[in-house]
Amino acid sequence: MKKLHYLIFSATLMIGSAANAQLQVEIAGVGGNQIPVAVAAFADEAMAPSEVSAIIRADLERSGVFKVINAGQVISDSASIDAGAWKARGADALVVGSVQKQPDGRFAVRYKLYDTVKGSQLSQLGGEVQPKYTRLQAHRIADDVYEKLTGTRGIFSTRIAYVKENRAARQYALAVADADGENEIVAVSGREPIISPAWSPDGGRVAYVSFEDRKPVIYMQDLVTGKRRVIANEKGSNSAPSWSPDGTKLAIALSKSGSYQVYVVNADGSGVRRVSNSNGIDTEPQFSADGQSLYFTSDRSGGPQIYKMSVSGGNATRVTFNGNYNISPRVSPDGKTLAWISQRDGGYSLFAKDLASGQELRLADGATEPSFSPNGKYIMYASKGGGRASLAVVSTDGRVKQRLTANAGNIREPSWGPFMK
Q1: Cβ–Cβ under 8 Å, residues 71 and 79
Q2: In what order do the strands lie in the sheet with 337-344?
Q3: List of E strands, 211-254
Q4: What distance in Å separates the CA atoms of residue 267 and residue 95, rounded to the nearest whole number?
């Protein structure tokens, strides 16, 4: 379990220098049976700070679900649509829209989605936003397209958190960005390692571990006010925070009793309660989707494996059996899929398992620190290749793959934020 300690508490010491630039997305794989969608340029979108149609196209392409066809022309949401002509061009759906600047400086962004096969309108969306939110509005439109054409909620308007390090300056930062890597902001920075960020279910707070006191301490950062508070600073090490689905509690790992054990604490840091009681190391707890159980890593059977137990404590049930080293459990938002990291064939790989059937799928090699998208269709993870650490995304069927990199330096410890209301 010394290796496990290293993965949990010391990984950021080796990840290189951070970059100030936005993250760059590289698409490495796409899904099968892509839906052909034509996206027209929006009327008068040049007056907005962001090119709305270009953002929508990039979002849909990045998902791997769509074959995006550039319409090559401007089409307003008020225009008359010849659905048959677009169907003849190979598009099953068409996105059109407009941008209008309002007297108060805001922008009215409107769009319509057409089914060219049935010749009918599928959806429309409109709203007035401040100039700085035109990009977000474009993501919301892409979300609507994704949902109307797949039946699953889109994740383009969500955010991600991750850790950056500038090794030369010994500077660590917890950064937050849009799901496409744009609009990055630094929420926390310091000269000591920062690890294990975890989003609150309401998307307004991030719990994380900082070594600024020369030991791991769990903090909570309010992303709106910029204020933070200590959640756990017990004797020994405080690590691996994860939120309950209702946002009222966190599961954490504490070593105050000697070896690491799983505890639950209220979101304000009060009411620390021990849950696991083993003679080994119990760590990396994660709430189940219904909040009634905890998945966690334990070496009680000899090597690290993943277990499940009631949030009130009691007997634990072993979940992973293939491989001698399984860590970092993550549960999909619908509770149907478990993702984790397994050491096999001399390296660390990302696996996912259907909890009902028990069927496992190897999704990616050279992976650590997985995090599910809020719709459960994608998993973001840390990957190291070419001497540099970056983030990567893979769909839960393994077909869609992409990589997020900085122009210089390294990023890791990803946490995918929730749907925002």
Answers
A1: no
A2: 326-331, 337-344, 347-354, 360-365
A3: 217-222, 228-232, 238-243, 249-254
A4: 43
- The third-level CATH classification (topology) of the domain covering 2-23+160-416 is Neuraminidase (2.120.10)
Q: Would you state the torsion angle of the CA atoms of residues 31, 32, 37, 38, taken in this order, to the nearest 10 degrees?
A: 80
Q: What is the largest CA-CA distance in the chain?
A: 71
From residue 179, how far is each of 58, 216, 343, 356, 388 by CA, in Å? 12, 28, 28, 30, 21
Closest-CA residue to 53 (of 70, 67, 34, 78): 70
Question: Alpha-carbon distance 179 to 158, whole Å?
Answer: 6
Measured between alpha carbons, how far is residue 185 from residues 181, 188, 282 in Å?
A: 10, 9, 34
- Residue 73's nearest CA partner among 45, 114, 36, 115 is 45
Paired sense of beta strands 347-354 and 316-318, if any? unpaired
Tokens encoding 357: 């059937």
Report pLDDT digits (tens) over 91-130: 999 999 999 999 999 999 999 999 999 999 999 999 999 9
Quote the CA–CA distance of 175 and 8 in Å, as a whole number. Answer: 19
- CB count within 10 Å of CB 115 equals 17
Sequence spans of domains, the chain: 2-23+160-416, 34-150
Which option is the CATH number for 34-150: 3.40.50.10070, 3.30.70.2860, 3.30.70.1130, 2.20.130.10? 3.40.50.10070
Specify whether the CB–CB gap between 78 and 105 falls below 8 A.
Answer: no
Distance linking the first and last C-alpha atoms of the chain: 41
Q: Is 64 exposed, middle or buried (0-12, 13-18, 19+ CB in 10 A)?
A: buried
- Condensed to tens digits (0 to 9), the pLDDT of residues 188-202 reads 999 999 999 999 999
DSSP assignment of 22-50: PPEEEEEE--SSPEEEEEEEPBTGGGSSS
Q: Is the pLDDT of residue 319 over 90?
A: yes
